Amino acid sequence: MSVYKYPSSIYCGQIVYPAEALQDVARQIAAFCSRCSDPRLALHLYCLNLSMGAYAGNEPKAGLVIFVYDARGEEHGRRADGFKWALDMKGAMAMTTSVNLRGVNQQFDSLKTIMGVTNTWQCGATLFAIDEDLILRTWKWSVDLLQKEPGLARSTYVLVEVMQRVDSLHLLVSWGAAYQSLGYPSKETAWPHTRNQHNLQLGAGRGPGSREGDALGRQAMAEGPYEIDPTHTKADYFPNSLDDYVDAKEVFGENWTKVVEIKKRYDPHNKLGGVFAKQ
Predict the structure, then answer these.
(1) Residues 104, 159: one domain?
(2) Over the stretch 150-188, which tens digit does the pLDDT of each residue have?
(3) pTM reported for the whole predicted model
(4) Which end of the chain is more exposed for a tag (fewer CB within 10 A), N or C?
């Protein structure tokens, strides 16, 4: 294992856009994905409810947020080879700053406020590539779901995580490098990893008390990855939030049998729980 000193000044934060900016956002992010080969740059795209009164039952207001991350610092982050394109788009409202790595993580502390408040379903899919059409489909999935059940606005989201194509030494490697530091399929880890490069995280939640709303949220998690990405397969998930609408055996692939054996050997009474318990 090698350890490298990490920068202490990271340019990051949210840039919020109105729904009218959808086409520009989709086009610009697709272009960024196709050209970026710098492992110190990354971004997340959120499709979510921008209504400040979502928890009080206000009408959902769909919007877009890009969370930018540039470990080369603010000067680079504001340049053309950083995120100038995101800052210059029409309607952009930037809430960016320069912080250390701990400060980056602390920007998400506010999410703790919804813990224990909503019934929430999640799934984490992987994507081979991100293009303009895929981003448009993520938006449509989110908007359509909120129209079907406005009560889900409390914690329904789409998160597209753009990952890098190169390793830390800037050596060009195959697609999906972010998941292939140990090769694919990996025999060194339980999850064999994937050839895919990016992440698609979906979530749907609402306050307790609506059986119909709960069922719709769960159904959305089961069907969402297939609606957003027509190439999605049963194996295209990462194993951080597997539910019964995900086939864990497909996700763990050729490592499945070995992982089940290890589970039975070291946790025969299932004290740790997990997707292997019923095998």
Answers:
(1) no
(2) 878 777 889 999 987 654 444 444 444 677 777 778 888
(3) 0.86
(4) N
